[in-house]
Amino acid sequence: MLPIIDPEEDYLTIVAAEEKIAITEQRRKKELDEAQANVKGALPLSIRSWLNELKSKSIASALSKQLEAARISSKRPVSVPSEKAHAKLLNELDKTKLDLMKSISDIEGLVASQEAELTALKDEARRLEEYDPALEHKKELDSTAIRLRMYSKMGFEPVLDKKGVLVKSIVRAQSGDLHVVPLDRQKSDFEQSRLLWKLASS
Predict the structure, then answer these.
(1) What residues contact residue 51 under an 8 Å CB cut-off, 6+ apart?
(2) Which of 47, 50, 86, 137 is the most buried (most CB within 10 A)?
(3) Contacts 24+ apart (CB under 8 A), 176-184
């Protein structure tokens, strides 16, 4: 960015120029006074007036030059933007800064969201790697229920009491007849099975 005018520096320049002009004016006045003293009485009045006028013009010319130099240095250079343009540029830069901060905040929020999603996906992938479908299916299957359903399809329907203990069986024969066979604890499992199959095939 181009340098901005420093009013304090310009003020100091003007003060220094005024001091220099005052010192130069005193020195020239002293020299002129000495010269006039040397030639006093020797020169006619017209020459003395001419010298006084020349002295005044010299001082005025020097002062004019110093004043013009100070005026030029106090003006804003062409390469430096005006106060209005500078304020507009600062406002645009502030707006750009705010837009960038918002964009950064949005991107950080998106990154955090993506990281959370990635963590969830990694956990899901780990869970799926450890998952055994066959084992899960085996757990879900109730072998007792499957056996009861198979027995029912073959024509045997067990009847349980309130405690879930088998008390009798209903046998559907091939002829369509239904036989109720109470559980006889005195008979062996083999004898019970043989009786049930005999009734089923009748």
Answers:
(1) 32, 35, 36, 43
(2) 86
(3) 177/202
